[in-house]
Design a protein that fits this description.
The protein has about 675 residues and is α+β, with helices and mostly antiparallel strands. It is built from 15 helices and 30 strands. The chain has a 6-stranded mixed sheet. It has a 6-stranded antiparallel barrel with strand order 25-28-27-26-29-30.
């Protein structure tokens, strides 16, 4: 009622008992919503329909991965000591018992207990997938106290007064779950001016913040801060009914389970998103992680080693395996599966002008590659793209697996009406393999007739060519910062190409490596990660991306005016590289607190063990006055503060820099 009163106060019209019958988008991008009371025209539509959200989405052609789950809570009779406390203005704190899988809060002078049953006892309303029964509104389900017996026993152990208190009522109703329990908040690239605020497993508690977040996004053209975890476009067609039901069941059943670094949850895996090398890499010891529907090798276990990721905070069994992979890259050669990259093709008349208006860097020349960033109007870092220019108006755009829909949406939202160029998401059509390390050039030379010497195939060059008899686009680039090529190809060829690369590299000691090794090496090289070092909470100068930003380039780009101001302003914070003196049992992961003089001054963004430095390392945002080399701060890990020291960023030169410096030195000496 308070929301309704406030809405009316600011001019809103509320129509009760007015279901949406259809939603139609008009040519100008606005919407027409048909109801029994007549048509409603609106520039924007927000789907915030609770357990009806999936049905409402279907009216507009959206297939939202949402399902209602039975959630029960118990309200006790009035508790005597709470009656006394209420008179004194006292309340018990909210309690969330992870071991017992329930929460407790005070409801006037009673206790409200909300258990989360395990996977074996919970009930999911799968038959509502297609439609909620007609007429179901404020009704409730029949309760089932037997499903709550384990949680109730835990409550009685923690709160003995509950043993002596009668139960006043048991409420059972639907709460809506997405596969990963997180809501879907924001616009979607699939429809213009259509916004989502759905999948809230915890109900009204999020409503105020989410409403403000969406309203300001609509008004300002960008969100106030980063909430990438709830991006509505994180789910694609791979998220089918089977995945939704199995994953939602797992998520509800583990609702109160504590999370751990690099923890994997296995329900509904794998999806249809598996690389052509999946079975081969699995047989070779790959330990997989889950990224946007893909199975991604994290590391490779040798015979007898574990391929799981145990739930604990300290350093795990894969530490030595990742060390072997780093050593292999530095001294021999490795192959890795990069198929999960998001991949788009932009081509046609006007493509160059459009892309230049979207990124802050200048565009590469034909057959060249660069790293470019899309910014918001206020100059925040929206996305990072690897741009390969294949022709005058033909571009191949690559982004991270987790930002596929996020980046595609930004590009599509800004495409001009009547554009002659096209933008296609070809992520599921293309496979990518990386060949990286000291002998990467030697391996590639055995598989192609094209010259691959440094002078013939320099850093950041891309070329359409034959490799092992397959048509590929090869790019000299590697996120490890070492010598390497990304080989982009038709996804159906991945398995055969992978096996030929292994055969060609056998004499050079080739092996497999995963994302854990890549992460360690990229932090050493100072490479930023999207959603870690780069996000909507920071501008490019704070993130150390100045060399990629051209505030005065001729083509106007989104965020240009902001950058022209920001480049002359003192940053509020700076990204730095640090070593951390841990006890040798754990490493920073990111999002840890940074302390100085017993005050919180920043946060880490990424972390790992540096096998080349034999120490824990991280990247972190700190105030500018704490960014000088040698400055000591403290990083909090598991409740303890460990000394950290600001070091050079990058900690190690990339292969491209080492090669360039060596050639300059040779030229000076000749």
């Amino acid at each position: 009622m308070a929301y309704a009163k406030g809405a009316r106060l600011y001019g809103a019209t509320l129509l009760q008992d007015t279901p949406a019958v259809s939603t139609q988008q008009k040519p100008d991008g606005s919407w027409e919503v048909d109801t029994p009371s007549g048509k409603i025209n609106a520039k924007h539509v927000v789907n915030a329909a609770g357990f009806h959200a999936r049905e409402i989405g279907q009216l507009a052609g959206l297939d939202l991965p949402l399902v209602p789950i039975h959630h029960q809570y118990i309200v006790s009779a009035s508790v005597p000591f709470l009656e006394e406390w209420q008179k004194q203005g006292r309340k018990i704190p909210g309690i969330r018992d992870l071991r017992g899988s329930y929460y407790v809060r005070q409801e006037r002078t009673a206790l409200l207990i909300g258990p989360y049953e395990g996977v074996d006892k919970m009930k999911i309303q799968e038959d509502w997938y297609d439609a909620v029964p007609k007429g179901f509104g404020k009704e409730l389900y029949d309760h089932d106290l037997d499903r709550l017996d384990v949680a109730i026993e835990h409550v009685m152990d923690l709160l003995p007064t509950f043993q002596e208190t009668e139960i006043q009522s048991i409420v059972a109703g639907p709460i809506t779950y997405s596969p990963d329990i997180l809501p879907m908040v924001g616009p979607t690239y699939k429809l213009k001016n259509y916004w989502l605020a759905v999948g809230f497993g915890y109900g009204i508690i999020h409503s105020g913040g989410v409403g403000k977040f969406l309203a300001r996004w609509m008004m300002n053209g960008e969100p106030d801060y980063d909430l990438i975890e709830v991006d509505p476009d994180r789910y694609e067609s791979w998220c089918d009914r089977k995945f939704l039901m199995e994953k939602a069941r797992e998520s509800y059943g583990m609702n109160t389970a504590p999370g751990f670094p690099k923890e994997e949850r296995w329900a509904a895996r794998p999806t249809e998103r598996v690389s052509g090398a999946y079975e081969d890499t699995k047989a070779r010891g790959a330990a997989f992680g889950f990224h946007s529907g893909w199975e991604v090798p994290h590391f490779y276990a040798t015979q007898g080693e574990r391929t799981d990721t145990p739930v604990c905070h300290v350093r795990k069994h894969w530490h030595d395996a990742v060390g072997r992979e780093v050593d292999m890259i530095m001294n021999r050669v490795g192959v890795t599966d990069l198929t999960p990259f998001g991949k788009f093709m932009l081509e046609g008349p006007g493509a160059t002008k459009f892309l230049s208006s979207m990124v802050a860097n200048t565009l590469p020349k034909v057959n060249r590659v660069n790293i470019s960033h899309m910014l918001t109007p206020n100059g925040k870092v929206y996305a990072e793209l690897t741009i390969s220019r294949l022709g005058k108006d033909r571009y191949y755009l690559v982004t991270g697996a987790g930002s596929e829909g996020h980046d595609l949406r930004w590009l599509m939202q800004h495409m001009p009406e009547g554009a002659e160029f096209s933008l296609k998401n070809i992520t599921d059509n293309m496979g990518v393999l990386g060949v990286t390390g000291k002998y990467a050039r030697d391996v590639l030379a055995k598989l192609t007739d094209e010259p691959v010497a440094h002078e013939d195939f320099p850093f950041l060059e891309c070329r359409e060519m034959k490799v092992a008899g397959f048509d590929v686009q090869a790019t000299r680039i590697s996120y490890t910062g070492e010598l390497g090529w990304e080989i982009h190809h038709d996804r159906k060829d991945t398995g055969a190409l992978y096996r030929k690369i292994l055969a060609a590299g056998e004499e050079f000691g080739i092996g497999d490596y995963g994302t854990f090794a890549t992460n360690s090496l990229r932090i050493e090289k100072g490479f930023r990660g999207w959603a870690a070092e780069m996000n909507l909470d920071k501008n490019p100068y704070e993130a150390g991306l100045g060399p990629f930003i051209k505030p005065n380039k001729k083509t106007k780009f989104i965020g240009q005016e902001a950058c022209q101001k920001l480049v002359h302003e003192d940053p509020k914070c700076k990204l730095v590289a640090m070593t951390v003196d841990t006890n040798g049992l754990l490493d920073p992961e990111g999002n840890e607190t940074v302390w100085f003089n017993n005050k919180v001054v920043g946060n880490t963004t990424s972390g790992a063990w540096s096998y080349n430095s034999n120490t824990s390392i991280c990247m972190a945002y700190v105030p500018p006055h704490l960014s000088d080399l040698g400055t000591n701060v403290y990083v909090e890990l598991l409740g303890r503060r460990f000394k950290a020291t600001v070091v050079n960023d990058p900690m190690y030169e990339t292969e491209a820099t080492r090669t360039r410096n060596a050639l300059k030195q040779a030229a000076m000496e000749s």
